[in-house]
Structure formats: structure tokens, C-alpha cells
Amino acid sequence: MADAPPPNESSEDYAAAHALEYKNRGNAKFKERDYEGAVQAFSEAIALDPSNAVLYSNRSGAYLAMSHVSKAFKDAEEAVRLDPQWPKALARRATAEHALTRYITAQATWRKALQLDPGNEAYEKALQAAKDGEAQQTKERIEDEKRKEREAEEKRRRDAADEAKRREDARNEEQLKDFFGVLEDDKVQRARKKKLETNPITEKYQKQKLGKGADHKRDRTILVIEGARERCRQERAFKLSKGVDPATLPPEEEALQKEVAKTFAQNEMKRRDVEEHNRVQQQRERDQAAEAEKKEADEKLFEKQWNTDDRRGARVGMWQDFQDDKKRSANVKRQRTAVNFKREEKQETKKKYGEWDRESWRRDWK
């Protein structure tokens, strides 16, 4: 720790002697990095000699080592008050001010210390560090202000976008009232209403379901309106980019309304086409089902008639006749085969013209 200033006339007093003993003990504790013990020893010394600036300065150093900056600043202030011309006390206060990020006051205190101890390199380095800290603090403050300005500007843009969206939704809501009935399917609504009337137990559930369907239709219609408006804006921007005179174009709001009406008309035509296609398909399916039913009925009738007694007897008689015919055919075939065999035998025994019978001697010999 720092050396004490020259002792005054009361240094040989009993309390001052014990205060010096506690101060030495505190310095030893400080070197051992036992900062709490050092603070306790310096406090005992201050209690015995409260007018000694060195004791406050030493305890301020111990508090700084413990990161108790506020207590260190108070002790440094007291040391400067007791001995304003002691540069070490000013250095303690400047160090505490730097730790408290009071860079401007720290610079002033370091300058006073340099006036009392000119050429001290440690003080000059500390003064430069305070200047750097002030510059960094100023930079951070400027960046923080810019960040706040950006956040405020972004908030203003969001608010403006929300307001524009709210106005757009209001316009869509107005157009929705005009076109919502066109998109609503009357058949589905009548079917749901009839189901509600015939099923009073599920009335609450059906109402909720009907409400959800209406909300879905409403959301879909809003999307259709927004899409039509966006297409109109893009087409208008494209024409302007190609050099078209804005005076030749219709007003934007009128063009938006026409585009929305055109889109709804196209959607309605598509809906009717789909409905007609579904109707034709359903009619075709009904015709096919009726044809299949008629074919099945004809097959059942034929099966029923086929299994009657008269038809069965006729079929049995026809089968018997067929079997008789088959037997007669077999007999005729056998007869024809026998006749042919006899004819072949006769043909084999008949001597051909100019042929010599080599077996005649056998017959003659027998």
C-alpha cells in the first residue's frame, strides 16, 4: 500500500500508535489478497485515527479489489477531503469514478492528480483510458439512440401498414356485402336448413357448423377481392412502366371495382359450368344405374322362366331327341364302316390287270 504522509505531532499518541499497527496489519492482509481482512483492519485503524487520509485511501483500495465501487468512492472522497493535495487520494477517487463509468469527472480528477504529480505515467495512462471510455460511452449512446429511432420508425411503418390493412378490410367488407350472396350456394343452404328442421336435437351443432361454413365463405371471398385488386395494381404498374400516359388510364378506384366485379362474374360463370357438369355427370350415373337395374331384372325374369316345368320338360325332350339322333348317327356310321371294309377286301382280292399272282401256286398246291 501507499506510504503515509509525514506524521503530525499527535503521531506518538496511544491511539495513533495502535492505528498504525492496524494499518500495517491491513497492508499485510491486502498483500495476501485477504481483502475482507484488510477492510476490517483498516476500519479498526480509522476508528482509532479518523483524521488519517491514508487509512481511508487504503480501505478504498481494498473495496475496489472487492468490486465494492460505491464504498470505495466514499472512502476516496473522504481521503481527498482530509488531504486535498495528496495525489494518491485523487488517484483513488478517479479510479472509483472510472469504475462507476463517470469518465468526464474521472478525467478532471486525473488532471488534478497530474498537476500535483506531473509526469506520472500511470496517471497519464489512466487519463487516456478515461478518455477512451468516454468515447466508447458516447459511441454506445449514439448507437442506442439510432437503434431507438429505427425501432420507432419501424413501429410507425407497422402502424401505417395496419391502418392501411384496416381500411382495405373495410372496403372489402363493403364489397363483400354486395357479392357474398352470389357465391353462397342456395342448395347447400336449403339442405342445411332442412336438416336443422328435421333434426332439432343437433340444432346447436348444425348452427355452429353453418356458421363455420359462412366464415369460410367470407374469408375466401375476401381473398378473391384482394387478389383481384392486386392483379389490377400490377397491371396498372406494368402499363405505366411501358410508358403509357396515366391520363389515358381510368381512375384507380374505379379500375379496382371493375376488376373485382369482373372476377366475381368469372367465378360465377365457372361455378355454373361446374354445376352443369356435375348435373350432367349425375344424370349419366343415374341412367347407368337404371340400365344396370333393368338388366338385372331381365336376367332374374329369364332365370325364373327358364326354371319353369314346361320349359324344363321341353328341354329334357329336346335332349332325348338329340341323344336318339346321336345313336342313330353312330349306327349309320358303323354300318358305313363295315360296308367300306368289305369293299376294301374285295378290292384287295381282285387281280389287277397285268399283275402276276405269285401266291397262286400255294392255293393250287393246297
TrEMBL record:
Domain of life, source organism: Eukaryota
InterPro entries associated with the record: TPR-like_helical_dom_sf (IPR011990), TPR_rpt (IPR019734)
Mapped TPR repeat ranges: 19-52, 53-86
Transmembrane segments annotated in the record for this chain: none
SMART domains: TPR
Keywords (A to Z) from UniProt: Repeat, TPR repeat
Pfam families given in the database record: TPR_1 (PF00515)
Composition skew (Basic and acidic residues), residue ranges: 131-177, 268-307, 341-366
Chain spans, region Disordered: 128-178, 190-215, 265-307, 322-366
Record GO terms (molecular function): Hsp90 protein binding
Protein name, per record: RNA-polymerase II-associated protein 3-like C-terminal domain-containing protein
Species annotation: Pelagomonas calceolata
